[in-house]
């Protein structure tokens, strides 16, 4: 059974940091693009970051560039989102999602884009709250 499970969310003060994990089971991540998305109450889902075949094939939303880092550990079948300098506007439920890598992403290490409707498998999310 294909499953993605997020963990690592919580309550943190502005300026703080968290590391989210996305653990996969039922399939191996090495041929999948993984995206992190978030949704705040009353707002549309937003693509935050995604990673392709290796840790250099990454994409970030402008709102998180320089503060968030996505990485993958294929041996652990896990993708991480390390978040620093957190702001109240980062408060949301964070979801990870997976889809198969395209040929260009596999062969030429092209970075995937966080387009939600392209992602086939989704986790249930983890809450991140940034507040003093």
Account of the 3D structure:
By secondary structure, the chain is mainly β. 4% of the residues lie in helices and 46% in strands. The chain is built from 1 helix and 11 strands. The strands form 2 sheets. Strands 2, 4, 5, 6, 9, 10 and 11 form a 7-stranded mixed β-sheet that branches. The chain has a 4-stranded antiparallel β-sheet with strand order 1-3-8-7, with no helix packed on it. β7 and β8 form a beta hairpin. The protein is globular and about 45 Å long. The relative contact order is 0.31. The model has no long low-confidence stretch (mean pLDDT 95).
The general outline is globular
In terms of structural class, how would the helical and strand content be classed? mainly beta
Percentage of residues assigned to helices: under 10%
Fraction of residues in β-strands? over 45%
- Give the terminus-to-terminus CA distance: 40 Å
Per DSSP E runs of 2 or more residues, the count of β-strands stands at 11
Tell me the Rg in angstroms.
14 Å
Main sheet summary:
7 strands, mixed
Overall average residue pLDDT: 95
N-to-C order of helices and strands: EEEEEEEEEHEE
Give the count of helical stretches.
1
Low-confidence blocks of residues: none
Question: Topology of this structure?
Answer:
Blueprint: E1 3-7, E2 10-12, E3 18-25, E4 32-39, E5 46-51, E6 58-60, E7 68-73, E8 78-83, E9 92-100, H1 103-107, E10 121-122, E11 126-130
Parallel strand pairs: 2-11
Antiparallel strand pairs: 1-3, 3-8, 4-5, 4-9, 5-6, 7-8, 9-10, 9-11
Question: Which key phrases capture this entry?
Answer:
4% helix; 1 helix; globular; 132 residues; seven-stranded mixed β-sheet; mainly beta; 11 strands
